[in-house]
Write a structure and sequence with these properties.
101 residues, mainly alpha, plasmid
Amino acid sequence: MTNKQFEQWMDAEKAKLAECLRGSGRLDEDGPDIPGISGADSLKDQYYWFELGNNTPPAEDGIDWETIEKELKAFAGEVITEWYEKKKAQDKREAYEMGRE
């Protein structure tokens, strides 16, 4: 495993979380369509199985998977907050345009 591979995997995981912010279209949903965050053990399995093709992750790999889980959850929280800010601004703008504000 190289640090570059891990960084690419983390970037891809964050990109999946931020997907709901892409595009300039109207936000029609009541909440962001964002994937859930797996637990530390599942994240480790996903990384080794899907990214590296290794069915048996090592017991110790030097990566603090609980910290990775927390980091991804914190990032998801930021994405959700940004989504709601965009939605609120959109709703306010639409209300103004319709003369309701």
